[in-house]
Amino acid sequence: KAGVTQTPRYLIKTRGQQVTLSCSPISGHRSVSWYQQTPGQGLQFLFEYFSETQRNKGNFPGRFSGRQFSNSRSEMNVSTLELGDSALYLCASTTRDRSYEQYFGPGTRLTVT
Amino acid sequence: KNQVEQSPQSLIILEGKNCTLQCNYTVSPFSNLRWYKQDTGRGPVSLTIMTFSENTKSNGRYTATLDADTKQSSLHITASQLSDSASYICVVSLTGGGNKLTFGTGTQLKVEL
Question: CB distance from A98 to chain B under 8 Å?
Fold first, then answer.
C-alpha cells in the first residue's frame, strides 16, 4: 500500500510570491491534516480536512489556506510569502473520522528568499 | 494555554544503553498522547498512542508510560541502537479536537558507538 505522498519535495520561492503544495493520502484515508515544522517552533497544526470540509484550523494567518478534493487529495496554498514561511510542510492522513493513527508524508521543504 | 514540554532537549548515549525521555503537558481536555520518532528530513512515524485510561504501552524496544493525574508521560528506549538516533516528539490530542494536535518541541537523541 502506497504511503502519503507530497509534491514537490523541495521548493524555493521569493518573498511576495504564492505557492501551492500537494498531498495525496493513503488510499481509503479521508482525513488530511497539514503541519508546519520550523526549528524554532517545532511542529504546528495548520488545518485538517475531512470529506472536502475543513474540520479544524490552527492559529495561522489567512495567507495559509487549503482545500480537499473528492478523491481526498489535498492542497495547501500560501500567498504573499514571507521569509518566516520557510519550513518543512508535512501532511498526514488518517483512516476514519476519529482515528488516532496518523501517517505522515515526507514533507515539502519550502525556502523563501 | 495548551502546552507540551519535553526534556531533555538533547541527549547523547552509547549504543546498548537505555534512556528515558520525559513529556509534561497541560492540554485539556485530554484525549490521547502519542510518541513519534522523526528521522532527519523525514516525516514523523508513530511509536505509541495511549488514551487517558492506559498507563503503559510498548512497541518493541520502546515503552511509553502515562500518568494522566500528573499529566506526565515518558518514553523508555531499551538497548539503544544507532538507528534510534532521531528526534522524539510527544504529541497530545484534545478531546473533540479531531486530529488537531499539540506537539512538544522534541528530544534530539544521538546514539554513539
Answer: yes
